[in-house]
Every structure is written in C-alpha cells, then in structure tokens.
Amino acid sequence: MAEGAETTITAPFEITGWDGATYEEPAEGPKLTRARIHKRFSGAIEGTSVTELLTAQGDAGSGYVASERVEGALNGHSGTFVLQHGGVGDETEQRAFGHVVPGSGTGELRGLRGTAVYAHDEDGARLTLSFTL
Description:
The protein is an all-beta fold. The chain has a single domain, classed as SO1590-like (AOC barrel-like), CATH 2.40.350.10. Helix content is about 0%, strand content about 70%. The protein is built from no helices and 8 strands.
C-alpha cells in the first residue's frame, strides 16, 4: 500500500455477541431498538470490534445507524479506528453509507480516512473499506 494511495479491501466478519432491547414500540410506526454488537474480522482486517447500534424496523422499511470501534490490524498496520455507518431500505431498495471518523485512528492507523459499506447477503457478512493512510 503506497502512502496516500487509496486502497479498497473487503473483510468478512462474524457476529460474536449481540445484546439488544426494544426501547419504543408504538401502536403505529416502526419499532425502535438499541443493541451492542461484537464482531470478529478476518482477511484484510484481523481484529475485533464493538458497535452501538440503533434501528427502526417497520412493515414498510427499516434503517440503522451505528458507531463502531475496530481494534486490530488493517493490511498489517496495527491500531484502532472508529466507523460511523448506517443504512435504510425496503423490499425494493437498500442504501448503505459509512465513514472512518477523521482523527479516530491510533497507532499505525493514525491518519486513516475513508468510506465503509457493510453488506449481509447470500455471499455472507462483510465490510468493504476504501481508505487512505
């Protein structure tokens, strides 16, 4: 990875812990939940993360927002960084977004910047991260 050049990696992950609860369930409209999620990444990211997740889940669509701290090695560079990501969708369209929080990198990941997109489908759970370091 050349310094300053953008790199894109895809890292599979597994959810190793999920502790969630509904905090609002109105008679009409989406149910709101909060969860703390733990993940283990492999491949280009070797490490773990902890995430605080807020969701809105209704009959017509759903959405989530999250803050996630990743600890481990990204392409062999050790440290931590924070992602903020989310998504919205319905039966016909899904949109996801995410970013590395500027200034959140530590250790060899200091200065990390980039975008992040999570996907969960028939190919499994994975994070695609496009970044500069």
